[in-house]
Amino acid sequence: MSQKFPGSTQKELIARDKSLSAKYSSLFVGKKGFWTLLKYEFVNLFVAPMPGALGLWLRKVSYPRLLKKVGKGVIFGRNITLRHPHKIAIGDNTFIDDNAVLDAKGEANEGIRIGANVYVGRNTALSCKEGSIHLDDYCNISANCSMLSETEIRLGKYCFLAGECYLVAGGNHNITDTSVPIMFQPSLAKGGIRIGEDVWLGAGVIVLDGVTIGRGSVVGAGSVVAAPLPDYSYAVGSRALRIRDRREFAESEKT
Questions:
Q1: Does residue 16 sit within a domain?
Q2: What are the residues whose beta carbons fall under 8 Å from the beta carbon of 79, sequence distance 6 or more?
Q3: Number of structural domains the chain divides into
Q4: CB 76 within 8 A of CB 94
Q5: Residue at 235 is within a domain
Q6: 37 in a domain, yes or no?
Q7: Is residue 183 part of a domain?
Q8: Over the stretch 103-129, which tens digit does the pLDDT of each residue have?
Q9: pLDDT of amino acid 146
Q10: How far apart are CA 253 and CA 241, in angstroms?
Q11: Which CATH number covers residue 130?
């Protein structure tokens, strides 16, 4: 069976014409060059984990040398993971808490743009997989949230996400070919996620690809949003579980 890896990460990992250092630079640093790699490694090894006021000051001084843009008054917590940092822009007075992941990885994507006065909580991951993520001014992203973008995730101003929310733009795979592992089948992106201004997502909310949530909306804790919500919606609950034989999809493709 011929296996095809649709994602850039898998392609980099199996590339036989690249050394380990070249793969590392491509996946994590995103730019070629010995000094670029050295600077990235120095910051991660000595500056990122440093505690106390000295660590805060060193990150304030060193992170702008890695990132695309850093505004005034930005605070970086400890042990932040940066991937392709040259495609990450952060506005004034924003706070990135401990153990956050800012992964702007991709070959031709825009990366991550974070506005002014934004809070990104502890252990929250913003991960680009050839997509982009844009958080507008005054967004508040609580701890342990996750955003995965193969296309685009865009949050308007004053959005508030409670803990453990999950937004995924992409990640759907074709499942009609039962002879090929699902992870090797093509991704079926539906256009990304767009959330309007002043939206509150309760704890554990899941927002699926292709969804637009109108401004002023509130989504209750534990809800699964799979369809667009108009402005000023109040939505609570998850979708009912439906069970079908997956092989029906393969049969329908033949007819």
A1: no
A2: 48, 49, 98, 99
A3: 1
A4: no
A5: yes
A6: no
A7: yes
A8: 999 888 999 999 999 999 999 999 998
A9: 98
A10: 24
A11: 2.160.10.10
